[in-house]
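User: Here's a protein and a ligand (magnesium ion). What would the complex look like?
Assistant: Let me lay out the input and then the predicted complex.
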Amino acid sequence: MAAVTSRRIQPPAPLRILTAVPLCDGHDSAITTINLELARHGLEVIYLGYHQSASAIVRAAIQEDTDAIGLSSYNGGHLVFFKEVVDQLRRSGNSDIDVFGGGGGTITLADARQMRRLGTARIFFAGTPLDTIVSEIKRDFARVTKPNARFRGDRALARAITLAESGRATRHSSLVTPRKNAARSLVVGIAGPGGAGKSTLIDELALRFLRANSTGRIAILANDPSHPGTGGAILGDRVSAIYAQDDRAFFRSLATRGSLTGLSAAAPAAIDILKRSGAFDLILVESVGVGQESDPFGSFGHRTPLVDAVLFVLAPHYGGRVQLQKIALLSGADFVALNKCDHPMAHTARAEIQACLDQNGQGQRLHATTAAQHSDPGVNQLYDAIQSLAKGGTP
Ligand code: B12
Ligand SMILES: Nc1nc2c(ncn2[C@@H]2O[C@H](COP(=O)(O)OP(=O)(O)O)[C@@H](O)[C@H]2O)c(=O)[nH]1
Ligand SMILES: [Mg+2]
């Protein structure tokens, strides 16, 4: 009989693809269909959105350490745009990331030949069945993820996180060179129900950070669920990132890949990698949309807390006072934000949540925010409260 070993066999990591629609192009219906189809077949798709510049696409692909970039282009500018993306990848030492795409009948066979000569790996023409697209992407763009000592800067960080995601956390140390005299990072975990506005709020906090600090960097780790059946995921938090599309922001999406804690199992290692790099003053970690019993960051003392402080975000539609009483994190969080205060239900919600926090007796401050509103005073106050924590204050 064969000996039983305790060595865990790692399933191959899902293929990670960044998808986007180029600048001056709002045709997003094709890419939305393709995103869904890829995720249904077990791929992790990081969707950047439409009207995206070549530099934003390349920055995102580097930070996400994607296997390839898929572009959907209908505006007629494909010859120039695909080349620009390929060239920027080459110039930044990331030419291992392939570029492919489609654009129905707007990309002719002759165009595709020229694009191929200029470095585009593949064009999918009008009429290509979706299952052919999926199987050929899987066949052509799958990579074995290995440590790569030639990677620098954000790509090195990103690859270290990828290795941690594939359960090879011990190998990441050699990829990240800690900065000398680096400041300590403040790590804030952000949890709350799906759709409450966590990602929007994070982007607004990123804007305030970037404005207030002319040289510092911010990191965002955005956790999103993997589909329990297919293993695929659409990692869509980057779509809400407008201000965090900045070279001083490192944004990384993490799929949960079966972890039920509200975070990827690699999140602790990813936080550690970012902290040890010494490059970030502030690290924001977004959990997946969490339920009543969730404790993604270890707020209740049963395990080592993952973060320095927890922000719980909820919107006015939580369903009444009794529902509020069931939310564990309402007592475990350091900060609570009632977002979507532009909603008519916000007035009552604010009074109910305040009563709940008063009962907790922990001095938790309720921040009333409208993240969708420019220069919202509530978001300003929340940012100031987080900053005072960075300076050694209390929430
Ligand atoms: C739907 C559509 C719209 C919708 C867009 C809705 C949306 N949110 O996407 C609306 C009505 C809003 C629209 C608006 C406009 N449109 Co329009 N639109 C189309 C149309 C009819 C279909 C495009 C589409 O989605 N096809 C469905 C996809 C799934 O199929 P496919 O295109 O065949 O793609 C296949 C492959 O290429 C592949 N694929 C595609 N992308 C990708 C990406 C990846 C990563 C992969 C792997 C594969 C892949 O998937 C498909 C599988 O078979 C095309 C005409 C046409 N027949 O192509 C015009 C077309 C693209 N539009 C056109 C124009 C001009 C416009 C407008 C400028 C019109 C105007 N004057 O206002 C605006 C611009 C809008 C904007 N903000 O950019 C022109 C572009 C001409 C050009 N480039 O020279 C076209 C070609 C129509 C025409 N013949 O004039 N449009
Ligand atoms: N009306 C309103 N909508 C908002 C506000 N904040 C976010 N949203 C919208 O709510 C939706 C969900 O936001 P998102 O940040 O993705 O939520 P998350 O799932 O908690 O990360 C998006 O359409 C946002 O534009 C707000 O303060 N007011
Ligand atoms: Mg989100």
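Summary: The longest helix spans residues 198-212.
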